[in-house]
Design a protein that fits this description.
Radius of gyration: 11 Å
Shape: globular
Order of helices and strands: EHEHEHEE
Distance between the termini: 25 Å
Largest sheet: 3 strands, mixed
Strand content: 25-35%
Number of helices: 3
Strand order of the largest sheet: 2-5-4
Length: 71
């Protein structure tokens, strides 16, 4: 459950369930506050839903992990 949590904090929770790190390409995305709930069973899907909130997307950077950036 996300209750006014920053995207950075929410990503940190999801990141623990993914292989490799998750980075933000745009610093302003980290501070956006979100409220709602996510199913973390498919962590990559949860990450994509979270990124989509506010017009961002997740890009796979191979062995480097994933990058969240504005569309």
């Amino acid at each position: 459950i996300l209750d006014g949590m920053t995207k950075a904090r929410a990503v940190a929770i999801i990141e623990r369930r993914l292989p490799g790190p998750v980075a933000f390409a745009n610093g302003g995305l980290r501070d956006i506050r979100v409220t709602g709930s996510l199913d973390l069973t498919p962590p990559l899907a949860a990450l994509r839903i979270l990124a989509d909130t506010g017009g961002a997307a997740v890009y796979n950077a191979g062995p480097l992990g994933r990058i969240i950036t504005k569309r």
